[in-house]
Amino acid sequence: MVDTMENILKSIAVLFLLCIALETKAQVNFSSLEEVLRYADEHEISIRSAGLQEKIYTSESRKSKMALLPSVNAQAGYNDNITLQPTLVPSDFLNPSASSGTYQEFTFGRKYVYTTGFTANWDILDFQKWFAVKTAKSQQEKGSIQRMYTRYSVYNLLANTYYSILLSEKSLEIQSQNYLIMQRIYKNAENKYKAGIISQEALNRAHIQLLQVKNNKEAVSHSLQELYNDLQSQLGIEDALNMTEELTYFGQDNDIEGSFTEHPEVVLQQAELKITSSKLQEARAAQFPSLSIGYQYNYSWATDSFMEFQNANELPQQILGLKLTVPILNGSTVHEQIRQMKISQEQQKITLEAQKLKSGKEDENLILAFNSSKEELENREEIVSLQSTNDRHTDNQYESGIISLEERLDRFQDLLNVQNDYLQSFGNYCLNYYKLYIRNLNY
Question: Which first-to-last residue range defines the signal peptide (predicted)?
Fold first, then answer.
């Protein structure tokens, strides 16, 4: 009986440890934004898709270079001349004494013909293929830049969600503390109402404020869960997420005044312009002459017996040729294509210049917004600290019966308003901070 109980207890212990292990395994922990971004580099679908597209462009570039090499093909064939067609030959061709205008039928050739050989062709001079290589190379570079731009966009999205989670957790902590304080105030008000010290109206006001604080707390809690779901969706994670980083003021001592690397959107537009220019050259090359060389070698065996090569006729053949193609009149399609590519090139130049100006001003505004939000947050932190101190003094006065319930509720509402302003300032600061951080990353 004792052994049986020991076995049961061991089984329960093993099952308990297994459940803990499974629970631990089913949770993904992140301690910083950098960890989130590293995870995204390996798992986020948009970044992975951009990486695969980059490989496709690399393959296309290799393919265009291969087109410059000679092409060599080998072939082998077999013909069974089931019926050899007779040929009419003038009779006087073989017999001068034969009557003019008469013909004799002769059959030429042999029933079975076996052929083997190879052909080689090389476009020695083909400007379109040369510029096609340049275009493919530009596409390959664009693939790398597109992946960089995708990372930049995804990083901004993830950082926004990440810091929204941290800010919501901080807000939930504050709201939970406020709810505890408000519960204590309402409990004290109930006791005073029962003792006949305060009116029903005053008690109702305390109850209303308690419900408002509770609603705020629950709203933040629900919003936090939605944010976690958003981050799971963005990262492609089914397991639960856990953020171990605590949101604090990042503490830059000086205003940020620095130059950025070129904006990813500008780099992407530069790549588009390079591709368009290369395509324009490729279109112009259609007007240039091309020169190709070809060589063909065939060897045939002709026999009247199937697979009998002893008495076969051997018929070798070699051909060497050069081909020069000079476009003279191909309609207006080439000229219209060149005209379209020139217009596209001009569009890309305009877009690039506009993007440079826009990105430069956005960078200037980002620095201004960050420094402004940093200064505002520092002031809000001091304000909320002072207001919290005042609220503790007010609470002591209320507990001592020095001030009324109405005044206590008014001062507590002042604290809630200051906290809301503080959280709003913290949110603006985090927004500008992560934008600045991601903008300075080396992609």
Answer: none
